[in-house]
Amino acid sequence: MKYRNVREISMSLIPIAAFLLALFIGTIMIAFLGANPLVAYQALLKGAFGSTNAIADTVVKATPLLFVGLGICIAFRAGVLNIGGEGQLVVGALSATIICLNFVELPGWMLIILALFVGFFCGAIWAGIAGYLKAYFKVNEILSTIMLNYIAAYGMNYLLRGPIMDPLQIELGSFIPQTTRLTHVVDLPRLIPTRLHFGTIVAVVFAILVYIFLWRTTIGFRIRMIGQNIQASRASGINVQKYMVLAFILSGALVGLGGAIEVLGVHHRLFTDGSVSGFTGSAGFNGIVAALFGQLHPIGTIPASLLLGALLTGANKMQRVVQIPSALIGALNGLIVLFVVGSEYLRRSQTRRMERTEDTKYNSKNKNKKESQ
Amino acid sequence: MEAIIIGIAKSAIRLATPYLYASIGETIGQLSGVLNLGVDGVMLMGAFSAFYTVLKTGNLWLGLLVAIVVGAIFGLLIAFINVTLKAEQGISGIGVYIFGLGLSSLLFSTMVGTVQTVSGFSPLSIPWLSNIPIVGEIFFHQNILVYGAFALIPLAWFILNKTPLGLSIRAVGQNPEAADSLGVSIVRIRYFTVVLGGMLSGIAGASLSIALLNVFQQNLTNGMGFIAVALVYFGAWRPATVLTGALLFSTVNAIQIWVQVHGINIPSDFTLMMPYIVTIVVLAAMAKRRIHPPAALNKPFERGE
Q: What is the ipTM of this complex?
C-alpha cells in the first residue's frame, strides 16, 4: 500500500520533471544565444498571463491543442500513433470553410452546427484512411498520417490559390492565398470581451466525453484493450481491425472539429503561407506533446494544453523583448516528448521491481504455509 | 524529347542523393531492431550545420564534417533514449523530429536570419566515363556527394551480407535473445547502427544544403526524412531495393520540377502532392508482398531473468 502511493506520486511527477528539465535546457539555450534567461522567462510569463487578454490568448491557443490532444489520447490508447493532426486540422478547417462559403443563406446557428459537424466528419474520414490502411494493409500509420498531412496542405493551397480565393484578392491583383472573411453570423460567440470563444467550452466538454467514452463504455474498454495487448484482444474475440479503424476515425473527428473551431472561433477565414503548418501553427504536433504531457488522459490533457498554450503565447512576447525566436518553444516541445517517453522506462522498471518484491513476499508466505503443513 | 528525358534522368539521379543516405542509414538501424522516425529532424540539423559552416568558412569539407558530427550527436541521443531508456520508438522519433525542426529553425533565425545561398559542391566530371554518350551525361557529371550516395549502396550490401558485423546487426534485429546468448552485445550493436544512421542523416541533410539546393530555410526537408523511412519499408530492408525506391521518388520529383519549370498547365500543388501520394500507394501495395520486417523491430531488448 505504501509502495502504491509512492508510485502514484512519482508517476504524476514525471511530466513535471520533464517540463522542468526542458526549461533548464531552454535556459542554457537562451544564455547561449546571448540573452538573459531570467528576462526572457519573465517576458514569457507576462506574455502568457500578464493581463486578461494575455490569459484569454493562452486559452485560445490551448483550445486546438486540447482537441488534437484528445484525438491523440484515443489513438495512442488504442496503440496506434496518429501523427496526422496537422492534416486533420487542415481538412476540418477547410471543409468547414467551404460549407460557410456556400450556405450563406442558412441561419447562423444552423450554419455553425453544420460547419462544425462537417469538420468533424471530414477529419474522421481523413484519419480513417490511415486507420483503414493500417488495419487492413499493415501500412505504418506514422508514415501514412505524415504523408496525409502534406496532401491535405497542398490540397488546401490549391483551393486557396484558385477556387475559394477571396474575390477581392483577384480583383486587386494581390492574390494572397486566403478566403474572404466568413459571414459574421458564423462567428462563435465570445465568452468575455476578449478573443476567448465558445469553442473552448466545447473542447472541455469533449475532454469529459472522451474520458467517459474510454473508461466507462464497452467500446472504449475494447479500444484500450487492443492498445494494451493486441494478441489477448484478438484471442478474446475482439475485432481488432474494426476497433483500430474506429480509434482513428474518432481521433481524426476530434482534430477535424478542432480545425473547424479554429476557423469559426479565431481566424474567421482560411489562409495559407504555403507550408503545412501555416494555418495550424503546428498545433497538430504540439497537441501530441500536450497528450503525452497529460499522460494520455483526456482530463490530464486539459492542464497540459493550457501549459503549452501559455508557452506558445508567451513565446511571442519573449521574441519581442529579448529577440529569442519563438522556434525555441518548438525545440523545447521536442525535448518534453523525449523526456516523457524516456522516463517511461524508469516507471516500468520501478513497477517491475515492486511486483517482484510482492511476488517474493507472496511466495515466501506460501512456502512457510507449506512447510508448517 | 531525348534532351528532356536526359535532363529529367540527370536530375533524378541528383535528387536521389538525400533519400539514399538517409534510407541506408535507417535500413541499417532497423535491421538491428531500432525504428528511428526522427530522421527528418536530424536531416534538418545536418543541413543547417553544414550550411552555416560553409557560409562562415567557405570550406565545404568542413561543412560536411560538421554535419556528420551533429548527426552523430543526434544518433547518440536517439540511441540513449531508444536503447538505454527503452522508450517507445514511434513516439521518441516524433520527439526527435520536433526537436530537430525547432532547434534548426531557432538557430537559423538567430544565426543567419535571412535566406542566403552558398556555393556548394560543384559537378565533378569523371574522366573517360563522362564521355560515354547519354549515360555519361546522366551519371558522371554529378557532384561528389551524389557519387558517394551511389557508392554507399554496394558498400552497405557488402557490410550487411558479407561481414561478421553485418551478421551481428541482422542477428540483433531478428533474434536478440540468441545473439545475446552468443555474446553479441545488443546495446553496442544498436548504438553503433543508430549513431551511423544519425551520421548518414546528417550527410543527407548536408547534401541538400551544400550540394543540391545550396540554401537553408526553415523546414528545408519538407518531410523528406519521413519518405526516407517509408523507402526502407518499400525496399524491404535491402539496399538494392531501397535504391529502386529512391530512384522512383526522385524521378517523380524530377518530373514534378520539370513540369513546374516549363509552366505546363497543371497546378503546382498537385504535382507537389505527388511524392506523398505515391508513398502511400506504394506502402499499401507493399502489403501484398509477404516480407516481414526484422522480428525485433521497435522492441527494446530485455534480458530474460
A: 0.89
